[in-house]
Specification:
Distance between the termini: 42 Å
Structural class: alpha/beta
Number of helices: 15
Oligomer: single chain
Strand content: 5-15%
Strand order of the largest sheet: 7-6-5-4-8-1-9-10-2-11
Largest sheet: 10 strands, mixed
Helix content: 25-40%
């Protein structure tokens, strides 16, 4: 690596010299080189232990520098804001038909965006974040739970902010991380230049202690209001440098609380928990409105991509409205993983609806494509997603990865028992077809520990209550026939009531074989990267996050 570092240093010096020798006319053409040199100087190349990341920096830098010196015209790279809400279901949006939520600002964003209507994430929080930031399934990242150590994203992973930094972006993180908060796992060690969160995480809603770039300061107000304030501060401080702002809220995750002005409209119409939950969503809507107004006021609107996504299926709003779907967070049914996905870039993308099968895996390749990041072949080969750019830019139907398969697994098995849970809460989706196994693992030793299998065993015995549902456990945590796959047509049977496996035996055979190959291929990496580490939670142990992250 010392040789490469020396060459980079010489190359940056030559770049500075070429800029300094330019006359006023050619300086305009080489301005991009100055920004690139500045960005490269911010990297500590001697500290690179990740060859893939070093290659990203080198390849991207060479491509940009060469193109600039040749006088090629390059558009200003777009700013990027990614807002990820926590535990908001697909149905928790006025435009998606919610009977109580108005969400005027989210509705406006919906109308001004490219809307991905068949967009899927992982069944719970940390797995979604791992896949979102790497472009690889969470199992390949060793993230199979929301508890330590299985929430930790393995340290050699190259993630989105590191890739964008290689193209000169300033990167900021605000809010919920949940991929390992200590030491080298923390966001400030994973490519983010500017970081803000609160002490106490989801448990502190009002006047939290804010931790901004390592410094603690008592905040005043509601947590999510402060998060959006910090996002706007980061953007303001970025000046003329292109920025990537990753704003991940804790709302509307439990514990449930929001300012009374947001909760009051729902009181008496639903339960107290549901009213608080809907109030938290209404507050997110309010803050999205603030953010959009801020961008317009700073003349950033036209060159800023705004993305709003949710991280898993419905939770405390499940029985108010779930858009007609079966399943909730931590289940393998459609309602456990279908997500809101809105992408807005005024003047570049005309608002329209996209119905292709898309996923969080597509975010990294898409944003790298839009930002001009040159991904080395070795890293690109590991990415499981595809660039959404053709779907974003075309209002007309396009052919785009029509044979795509999405593999999902709830994970969350007792630590040390990954192999026994190969078929417990697993699915394969191809187009509108969903191949599902939703049954406890059957391993006798699993009964000694607390896991999702505990819930499934209870439901199979006739329980009507389960996490997030007071009376519809049999539906939302539905049990399929043991030791075989079930198949459902989501287009014609969105409630997944009619198992058509017997009439579609060829499709079942093909998809189940694909699943076996996927599991067998990824299992060794998952084990190697920590996906089965830790001690299992005894069944009677009181752990507030064992079944409800």
């Amino acid at each position: 690596m010392i040789v490469e570092t020396h060459k980079i240093s010489v190359w940056i010096s030559n770049m500075d010299a070429s800029i300094g020798q330019s006359d006023s006319e050619s300086r305009a053409e080489t301005a991009g080189c100055g920004s690139l040199a500045l960005a490269l100087r911010s990297f500590d190349f001697m500290s690179f232990t990740n060859n893939a990341l070093f290659s990203v920096v080198l390849v991207t830098a060479l491509a940009v520098f060469t193109g600039t010196l040749e006088g090629s015209e390059r558009e200003e790279p777009p700013n990027i804001i990614l807002v990820l809400t926590d535990d908001q279901g697909y149905g928790d949006l006025g435009r998606h038909g919610h009977p109580l939520l108005k969400t005027p600002h989210l509705n406006q964003l919906h109308e001004e965006s490219v809307r991905f209507e068949n967009f899927y994430v992982s069944p719970s929080c940390s797995p979604t974040r791992a896949a979102l930031l790497t472009g690889m399934h969470e199992f390949r990242n060793g993230v199979t739970h929301t508890l330590q150590p299985r929430e930790q994203l393995y340290l050699d992973a190259v993630i989105l902010p590191q890739l964008l930094k290689s193209a000169g972006y300033r990167t900021g993180f605000i809010g919920k991380w949940h991929l390992g908060n200590k030491g080298d796992y923390a966001p400030g060690q994973r490519g983010f230049d500017w970081c803000s969160t609160n002490a106490g995480g989801p448990r502190v809603h009002f006047d939290p202690v804010m931790i901004r770039n390592g410094k603690r300061e008592k905040g005043k107000g509601y947590r999510e209001d402060l998060f959006f304030d910090d996002a706007m501060t980061f953007i303001e401080e970025s000046g003329d440098q292109p920025f990537f702002c990753y704003l991940a809220t804790y709302s509307p995750h439990s514990p449930l609380a929001a300012p009374e002005e947001f909760v009051a409209p729902f009181r008496g119409r639903v339960s107290d928990d549901e009213a608080a939950y809907l109030g938290m969503v209404a507050n997110i809507d309010f803050n999205v409105g603030r953010l959009m107004k801020f961008l317009r006021g700073r003349d950033l609107d036209e060159n800023t991509i705004v993305i709003l996504m949710t991280d898993n299926g419905a939770t405390y709003g499940l029985e108010v409205f779930n858009a007609g779907m079966r399943g909730c967070k931590c289940t393998i049914w459609q309602g456990g993983s279908r997500a809101i996905s809105l992408w807005r870039w005024p003047g570049q993308w005309e608002p329209h609806e996209v119905n292709h099968l898309t996923a969080h895996l597509d975010v990294v390749p898409t944003l790298c494509d839009l930002a001009g990041v040159e991904i080395p072949d070795a890293l690109d080969a590991d990415l499981e997603g595809f660039s959404l750019r053709p779907l974003l830019e075309s209002e007309e139907p396009v052919t785009w990865h029509e044979d795509r398969l999405l593999f999902r697994h709830v994970g969350r098995w007792p630590s040390g028992m990954a192999a026994e849970h190969k078929y417990a809460m697993a699915s394969v989706q191809k187009g509108d077809y969903l191949l599902v196994r939703s049954h406890e693992c059957g391993a006798p030793e699993c009964r000694e520990f607390s896991s999702q299998c505990t819930t499934l065993r209870s439901v199979e015995k006739g329980a009507t209550r389960a996490t997030y549902t007071g009376e519809n456990a049999g539906f939302h945590w539905g049990i399929t026939t043991k030791d075989r796959w079930s198949l459902f047509d989501l287009k014609n049977d969105p409630n997944c009531r009619k198992d058509i496996a017997s009439s579609q035996s060829k499709l079942v055979s093909d998809l189940s074989a694909a699943y076996d190959q996927w599991w067998d291929t990824n299992f060794p990496k998952m084990i190697q990267r920590g996906g089965d580490k830790g001690e299992p939670t005894p069944r009677n142990h009181r752990n507030r996050t064992a079944n409800q992250p």
